[in-house]
Amino acid sequence: MNVSAVVLSFNSKRYIDKCVRSLVHCRDVTGLSLEILVIENGSVDGSVEILKALQQEVGAVLQVTYLPQNTGTTRSRNLALKKATGEAILVLDSDAYMNPQALVALLNYLKAQPQAGLVAPKLIYPSGKFQLSVDMFPTVGRKLQRLVALRELESREPPARPGPVDYAISACWLLSGQAVERTGLLDERIFYSPEDVDYCIRLWKAGYEVHYLPEVSVVHDAQEISRPKGLSINSFALRHAKGLAYLFFKHRYGLSLRGLHRRLNRSL
Questions:
Q1: What does the alpha-carbon distance between residue 51 and residue 64 come to, in Å, rounded to a whole number?
Q2: Which residue among 20, 60, 178, 249 sits deepest, i.e. has the most Cβ atoms within 10 Å of its Cβ?
């Protein structure tokens, strides 16, 4: 198996059909051996019915695990990671749509850069606008900056050259199977975010690098379910804050990146 695609579905009626079909299209165009592992996290919006219809249509390439309730991003992704048989593992959000050019380029990059355990493409909104998807590891100050000025940050020029970055959001990752085997599964003590930051830190600790490939792009129709609307704070935002506090405690940093970078042998 060349690629195992891991996709989570939670109330993703607007996106899941397009996401799955984009992966099937990649398989058909590239000729790659590909399996699509979807974990359905207890949706109540019609996503289940869409996935069952897709299974009837596309056949065994699509394997769906139906869970009775939302178990978060880590536990559910780990269920799929345990089933994955691919040499490379594509972690893809249900609101992201893979294309053949990007998938082939990411695979070729991973093969050419064995020190890269993870490579991520440039993410763009459906409008074509750049999405801030790679960044320095978060600190308290950086998170506050992203909260109040994310759109301003995204208006700046994105990184132009491929190469190492601190972390990439997990909307679209291509991981080497060896890196996953060496690094382990996602930390299930984090329910929803920042499991992606934690995993990137652990990849660095395991001797791998996280890389960004801006030469190819993937559309991410971001749901941003953890971002508060106005002054309201939803349950996902609260869980994100809890996860962030856990991340800082676990990796012994929070206000500055100097110590963390030193421990990871990571220089900017």
A1: 8
A2: 20
The pLDDT tens digits along the chain (268 residues) read 899 999 999 999 999 999 999 999 999 999 999 999 999 999 999 999 999 999 999 999 999 999 999 999 999 999 999 999 999 999 999 999 999 999 999 999 999 999 999 999 999 999 999 998 999 999 998 888 777 766 676 677 667 899 999 999 999 999 999 999 999 999 999 998 899 999 999 999 999 999 999 999 999 998 655 444 444 456 777 888 899 999 999 999 999 999 999 999 987 6
Instruction: List Cα–Cα distances, 247 to 18, 206, 234, in angstroms.
Output: 33, 17, 20
Cis peptide before 194 (omega within 30 of 0): yes
**Placement of tokens 């056949």 in the chain:** 59
Best CA proximity match to 74, nearest among 175, 167, 198: 198
The DSSP annotation for 80-119 comes to HHHH---SEEEEE-TTEE--HHHHHHHHHHHHH-TTEEEE
User: Which pair of structure tokens corresponds to residue 199?
Assistant: 């995993």
Statement: the pTM of the whole predicted model exceeds 0.85: yes
DSSP state of 155: T
Beta-strand pair 167-168/62-67: unpaired
Looking at residue 146, its amino acid is R
Q: Establish if 60 belongs to a structural domain.
A: yes
How far from 267 is each of 106, 140, 262, 264, CA to CA, in Å? 24, 20, 8, 9
Q: How many domains does the chain have?
A: 1
Q: Is residue 55 part of a domain?
A: yes
Q: Which residues form the domain of 116?
A: 3-263
- Which CATH number do you get for residue 232? 3.90.550.10
